[in-house]
TrEMBL record:
Keywords: Lyase, Magnesium, Manganese
GO MF, one example: terpene synthase activity
Cofactor: Mg(2+); Mn(2+)
Name of the protein described by the UniProt record: Terpene synthase N-terminal domain-containing protein
InterPro entries named among the record's database cross-references: Terpene_synth_N (IPR001906), Terpene_synth_N_sf (IPR036965), Terpene_synthase-like (IPR050148), Terpenoid_cyclase/PrenylTrfase (IPR008930)
One GO term of the biological process aspect: terpenoid biosynthetic process
Native source species: Acer negundo
């Protein structure tokens, strides 16, 4: 039994929605061949275009932009006044205060709110160990006291 193949010529305009714009479809002839008995799809496109000699070349004007002053040497010359030892000590002091705050919070909802605030501020990476310990503590005590999250969708979502 001989295998036969069916070839269908389908205009591209039926795929792209150009059937409503006949002027656009008339500019170029496009078709797509689909062989039904094989998994391959072959698309053939032909266009009616002008030869290169007939096309006009558009010459654009130069805007004469000046080079940027923000080169690497200029950026390296900028100084940052917050890199001194005074600011480093202050940052360490503030980190210790936050660690104390994490340790002093007793209510589970307050702990979760503090952790949420640290994460939203982008400071959580400084306190990963403390956050992990606090979350483990909240998780371990979740069945002991459920009153703080009962009928409170916000608390439940923070715990989640």
């Amino acid at each position: 039994m001989a295998s036969s193949s069916y070839i269908a010529a389908i205009p591209v305009s039926s795929f792209t929605g150009l059937q409503h714009y006949p002027k656009l479809v008339q500019q170029g002839a496009s078709s797509c061949r689909i062989r039904v008995n094989k998994p391959a799809v072959q698309c053939v496109s032909t266009t009616n275009s002008k030869p290169e000699s007939d096309q006009t070349v558009v010459i654009r004007r130069s805007a004469n932009y000046k080079p940027s002053i923000w080169d690497d040497d200029y950026l390296q010359s900028l100084t940052n006044v917050y890199t001194g030892e005074v600011y480093t000590r202050r940052a360490k002091l503030l980190k210790e205060k936050v660690r104390e705050m994490i340790g002093n919070v007793s209510e589970p909802l307050d702990r979760l709110e503090l952790i949420d605030s640290l994460q939203r501020l982008g400071l959580a990476y400084h306190f990963e160990a403390e956050i992990k310990k606090t979350l483990q503590n909240v998780y371990n005590n979740r069945d002991v006291d459920r009153s703080w999250k009962k009928d409170n969708l916000y608390a439940t979502s923070l715990e989640f």
